[in-house]
Structures are given as C-alpha cells and as structure tokens.
Design goal:
The complex is a heterodimer of chains A (about 190) and B (about 130).
Chain A: H1 8-18, H2 22-33, H3 36-53, H4 62-81, H5 89-94, H6 108-114, H7 118-127, H8 130-141, H9 146-153, H10 157-176, H11 178-184
Helix pairs in contact in A: 2-3, 2-4, 2-8, 3-4, 4-9, 7-10, 7-11, 8-10, 9-10
Chain B: H1 3-14, H2 20-32, H3 34-53, H4 61-67, H5 76-83, H6 97-114, H7 116-128
Helix pairs in contact in B: 1-2, 1-3, 2-3
The chains are: A mainly alpha (about 190), B mainly alpha (about 130).
Chain lengths: ~190, ~130
C-alpha cells in the first residue's frame, strides 16, 4: 500500500471525522455497485482519496464531504468496470415522469405501495439507473437534505428536487410492472 | 402555480424542504385538487415504504478492520510496518490529558521549590512591616 507516514494527530482526526459516516458510505457504494465485495473495494479506495484531500477539508458538513468522495469513486469505478451501467446524465434529463391520469377514489397504486415488501422495493431500487438510485439512497435511507445532496452530486438544489421527482416516478413505474423488476435485477 | 409545478413541489413538500410561502400556496392547491391529493398520497406511501422497508446496508466489520487496523499485540519490530498495513491505520494515540496535567503540576512544584528562598525573604520582609 505504501502509505506515507504522516502525523498521528492528522490520522486520528481523519478517523474521528470519517468513522461516523462509514455506514452511509458503505450503503451508498453497496447500492451503486450492487455487490458487497465491490462496495468494500470502492469504499477503501474512497477513504484513500479522502485522506489525500483531508488537508483541504474545511471541517464542516463532514457527511456530505465523505459521501461526495464515495459517490465520485463509485462512478469512476462504474465507468471502468461496468460502462453499460454508468449512463450519461443527459439521458436522465430527457426522461420526464409520466403524467398521471387515473383518478379513482380508492387508488389501487397507493394501496399497493403501502403493502410493497422489502424484496420488491430493493429490486426496484436496483433496477433504476444509478443517477436516480443515488438520490433515492441519499434521501430516503441516509436522510440527507436537498442542500447536502446537491453537495454530494454537485448539482443545484432545484435539480436535486426534479431528479428526485423523476427517480420516484421511475421507481413507481418499475414497481407497477413485476416482470420488469425481475428482468432488470442482476 | 401550474399543475405541473405543483406536482414537482410535492416532492419538496414531503421531504420537508418547501419554504413557508410555497407551502401555503401548495396546500391551497391541494384543498381544491383531488388528483393532486392522490399524487401526494402515492408519494407518501412510496416514501414511507422506502424509509421503513428498503434495505440500508451497514459497513461490514471486515471493511472497518481493513480501513482502521489496530496495532495491538504486534512485536515492536513489526509494529511500524503493521501500522501502515491498513489503509488508514490507527497509530499510537497521543498521551492522555491527565499525563499532561501531571507534568504541569511537577513543573509548578519544581519552580516553587527552586524559588523558595526568595519567597521566604519576601514574606519575612512584609511581616516586619
């Protein structure tokens, strides 16, 4: 590994900043890479990068800072290892949520969503493009604010909202078609 | 506020990210638009399903160990290499605060002892006056 000896205080400061966010880091990497082994490699690589950039860390918004590095490492890794999955963001911009039209009183979709099981939800999250998956993970699992998500994915807050809107529309579309979930889930 | 804008703002609404003015405006739309209320119900159902049932993975202990390997129970000769074995190895901790305080106390006592004759003379002079 050839780690350059550095001051002990820097290392322990780094550790105390990063450790509280390791679960969030791993969860994001796990969802973006899809596999435990790959997620571990990506997080390890991300921590090396984070340590290199640590001198430039201003000491605020540590979670967003850590997750941004993990996220960028994930996408670099996806581009190198699964080029088909890392689709360009321009493609995402064109996908608008479908207009809802059915307006019945007892809405079957709402009822179905209330009873969706964990395995279906997980399959649906895995089936949507990574650009949508990451905002769902950051918002619904990690509870990040729009401002924090904007920092992590390096986009304006307004774009975070519309990206989330499209991601949720995409999840709903996948959840409505069971075959699609099975077919896309690798 | 157009219906399309209202639908997008529902997301900020369920995420608690909508400012007060827009919230008032959106809620007045909700009171008059059943389709918008239905969309809100669907989004809320999806959100609560994701938050309560989708898997949130935890960092495995093996990865934690790979990142921060402790230097414990390693021969002194190999200790240094081992310390740099992990990605960001946990190294020897700085001495605890109590050790610093003990050191400071010893220094103060030494200073007091060395300057004792001076203080004695000063005290003697003031008592005479």
């Amino acid at each position: 590994m050839g780690f350059v000896p550095v001051s002990d205080s820097k290392r322990s400061r780094f550790e105390s900043i990063v450790t509280p966010h390791l679960d969030a880091a791993y969860n994001l990497a796990r969802w973006l890479t899809g596999k435990d082994h790959d997620a571990q490699d990506v997080v390890q690589e991300a921590m090396l990068r984070a340590f290199m950039y640590f001198d430039g860390f201003r000491g605020v918004a540590a979670r967003a800072w850590v997750l941004k590095i993990v996220r960028n490492t994930c996408f670099t890794w996806l581009q190198a290892n699964r080029p088909s999955e890392s689709i360009a963001m321009e493609e995402l911009q064109d996908m608008m949520p479908e207009l809802f039209c059915s307006v019945s009183v007892d809405d079957p979709e709402t009822i179905a969503l209330r009873h969706t099981e964990a395995v279906q939800l997980n399959d649906a999250i895995a089936a949507i493009p990574p650009g949508f998956r990451e905002v769902i993970v950051l918002r619904e699992m990690e509870g990040l604010s729009y401002k924090e998500i904007a920092t992590v994915i390096d986009l304006p807050i307004g774009t975070v909202m519309s990206r989330l809107a499209r991601a949720r529309a995409e999840l709903r579309r996948v959840l409505k078609s069971p075959q699609c979930v099975k077919g896309d889930n690798k | 506020m157009t219906p399309e804008t209202a639908r997008v703002l529902l997301h900020a609404y369920i995420d608690g990210e909508l400012d007060a003015a827009s919230t008032v405006e959106l809620e007045s739309h909700l009171s008059t638009s059943p389709p918008l209320r239905q969309e809100l119900a669907r989004l809320s159902a999806l959100q609560s399903a994701l938050q309560s049932r989708a898997t949130r993975y935890s960092c495995p202990p093996t990865l934690n160990a790979r990142l921060f390997s402790p230097p414990a129970t390693v021969e002194a000769t190999h200790a240094r290499e081992f310390r740099h074995g992990g990605v960001i190895s946990r190294s020897a901790r700085p001495p605890p605060l109590s050790l610093y305080l003990c050191g400071a106390l010893v220094l103060i006592l030494c200073f007091a002892a060395l300057t004792a004759p001076y203080w004695n003379r000063l005290l003697a002079r003031t008592s005479v006056l």
